[in-house]
Q: What sequence folds into this?
């Protein structure tokens, strides 16, 4: 066993690897960009090395700099985590050429599975079922259109070098194929440097079920399946293990196919074989097909660890150091059920746009596993994936594990950035999901209900008013001999406004919310409003008051001295919703556009975001050009004022 490893990654996966390395008595070396100088993984590691600027291309994708950092610090092995260089065979070759150990599969195994079309041909040869589709080298649009027409709609266009939903488009009609192809190829070229695509038959009521495999270069075992069907924009939201409705017969068939896939390429380390499953008539051994193999550890690996009791990172470290498989297939069993929810800084009502911000308040419940790479006070950077944490729960049954996940999410408190926390909580309460009736279209079908904001109760406003006035942290200033002294506070949320007042009345408080008056009492560290225990508490940071619970509500205390400086950013001005690069501009000054027309594409946080016209009008001015880096809120396109 080596004594020092370098982690060529950042965030929660770097922290996760450090924990397992430390448990084995190994030293860990972190690498970091200028943007991550104060990051959690840097603080956790035994040693840390600056490798470049904030852009991934200037830091976490600089393989030669990472290898030099390993040599300089005496590390004998490099763990790639996931993302960045984890599936780059040239990096693996360079690591081994430097006399270091790559904690993962061989370069040849990564190459074998790196291109989806070649991987599917290989799997078909190995006897693994594959989805009908086109995987040829002819990338002419007309040829691809003809192939799609022959397969039959709906079809899925997928980047051959893709992952994470990038370069992927669903096409339901032949007439929409050309535009979807151009969009997919453009995104694939940006994300992967390879515009080639393949075309697959789109499975109705599809489920995404993947099998965790682990090999030692010769033999492999599987650690059962995970269901990752709960997705939006082809990205996973909540994962679980085992898959609901799974039969012993189908589990054996999928496990055998996954092991066959791993052994066909001499796989070493942790990997995942992903299958698309037809869920329209229950799970059947003849109803699953190979999609791709991820030749690395997966984001959702904790649910597998929870049901098997295996530390997959420990296994990676042991096998990379020369050990054989830690156990045989018959030694592996499933205990209970587990869920993982991905907590992101993202604006769900705005279409799941990635968000930034400083985490002014961050609390997690003690009875859930939390894998995170950020702490209270940290800033969510525009340069990297905006994940805040993974919330993982385990229970004896699926129902218990899901109830524990719901409670854990309700007990999670985040302020300083918009998040998908309420959306995740809504999913745990979704009747169909609770019943195990899942497929990849569930979120899309029920998105309005899942993202609907509940009416704000007077008790919630009262809780915010109490926090804003500092009630419960000492008496309110001032007194009156005969009547309570009311102190006023105004709370705003969007266009809504509440005029509130708070007064101390004996041992209790009275809170006026508009025309209503509520009583409040502090008992054992919790607020009771009108005799009911408040679901959570509130936190004040600056002029923002956050009330936590099943649905976090943020209010603003307006500054009476603030001057309204309307920047004119209404429907006539198209603003950058976040920092990023203008990928393309589709209009010129003088063009007449309709509401919803595509105006530009902004590339940010590894994804493309289409900016559209908020109303009909004439383009007065184009304020940005392709290739330009812009800040959040920057004006990009102006429409002429309406007469």
A:
């Amino acid at each position: 066993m080596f004594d020092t490893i370098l982690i060529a990654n950042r965030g929660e996966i770097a922290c996760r690897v450090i924990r397992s390395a430390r448990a084995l008595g190994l030293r860990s070396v972190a690498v970091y960009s200028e943007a991550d100088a104060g990051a959690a993984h840097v603080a956790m590691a035994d040693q840390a090395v600056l490798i470049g600027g904030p852009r991934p291309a200037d830091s976490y994708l600089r393989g030669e700099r990472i290898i030099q950092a390993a040599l300089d610090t005496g590390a004998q092995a490099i763990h790639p985590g996931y993302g960045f260089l984890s599936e780059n065979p040239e990096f693996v070759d360079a690591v081994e050429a430097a006399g270091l150990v790559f904690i993962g599969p061989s370069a040849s195994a990564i190459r074998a599975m790196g291109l989806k079309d070649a991987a599917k041909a290989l799997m078909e040869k190995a006897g693994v079922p594959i989805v009908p589709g086109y995987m040829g080298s002819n990338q002419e649009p007309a040829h691809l259109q003809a192939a799609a027409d022959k397969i039959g709609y709906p079809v899925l266009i997928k980047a051959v070098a893709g992952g994470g939903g990038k370069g992927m488009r669903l096409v339901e009609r032949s007439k929409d194929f050309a535009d979807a192809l151009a969009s997919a190829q453009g995104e694939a070229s940006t994300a992967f440097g390879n515009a080639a695509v393949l075309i697959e038959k789109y499975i109705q009521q599809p489920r995404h079920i993947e099998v965790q495999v682990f090999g030692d270069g010769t033999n492999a075992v599987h650690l059962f399946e995970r269901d990752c069907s709960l997705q939006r924009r082809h990205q996973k939201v909540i994962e679980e293990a085992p898959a609901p409705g799974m039969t012993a017969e189908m589990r054996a068939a999928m496990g055998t196919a996954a092991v066959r896939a791993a052994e066909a390429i001499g796989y070493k380390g942790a990997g995942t074989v992903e299958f698309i499953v037809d869920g329209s008539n229950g799970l059947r051994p003849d109803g699953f097909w190979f999609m791709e193999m991820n030749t690395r550890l997966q984001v959702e690996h904790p649910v597998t660890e929870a049901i098997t009791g295996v530390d997959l990172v420990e296994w990676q470290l042991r096998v990379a150091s020369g050990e054989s498989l830690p156990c045989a297939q018959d030694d592996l069993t499933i205990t209970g059920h587990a869920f993982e929810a991905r907590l992101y800084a993202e604006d769900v009502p705005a279409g799941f746009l990635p968000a930034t911000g400083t985490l002014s308040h961050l609390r997690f419940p003690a009875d859930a596993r939390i894998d995170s790479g950020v702490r209270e006070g940290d800033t969510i950077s525009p340069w990297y994936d905006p994940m805040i944490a993974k919330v993982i729960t385990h229970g004896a049954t699926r129902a218990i594990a899901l109830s524990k996940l719901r409670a854990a999410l309700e007990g999670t408190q985040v302020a300083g950035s918009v998040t998908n926390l309420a959306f995740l909580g809504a999913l745990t309460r979704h009747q169909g999901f609770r019943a195990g009736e899942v497929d990849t279209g569930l979120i899309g079908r029920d998105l309005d209900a899942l993202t609907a904001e509940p009416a704000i109760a007077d008790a919630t406003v009262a809780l915010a008013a109490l926090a804003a006035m500092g009630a419960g942290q000492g008496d309110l200033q001032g007194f009156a001999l005969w009547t309570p002294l009311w102190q006023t506070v105004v709370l705003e949320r969007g266009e809504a406004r509440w005029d509130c007042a708070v007064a101390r009345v004996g041992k209790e408080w009275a809170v006026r919310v508009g025309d209503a008056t509520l009583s409040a009492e502090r008992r054992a560290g919790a607020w009771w409003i009108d005799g009911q225990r408040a679901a959570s508490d509130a936190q004040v940071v600056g002029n923002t008051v956050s009330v936590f619970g099943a649905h976090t509500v943020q209010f603003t205390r307006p500054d009476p001295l603030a001057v309204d400086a309307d920047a004119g950013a209404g429907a006539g001005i198209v603003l950058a919703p976040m920092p990023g690069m203008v990928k393309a501009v589709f209009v010129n000054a003088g063009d007449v556009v309709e509401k919803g027309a595509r105006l530009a594409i902004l590339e940010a946080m590894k994804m493309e975001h289409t900016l559209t016209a908020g109303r009909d009008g004439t383009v007065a001015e184009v304020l940005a050009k392709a290739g330009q880096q812009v800040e959040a809120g920057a004006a990009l396109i102006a429409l002429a004022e309406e007469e």
Remarks:
- The chain has a mean pLDDT of 91.
- DSSP finds 17 helices and 40 strands in the chain.
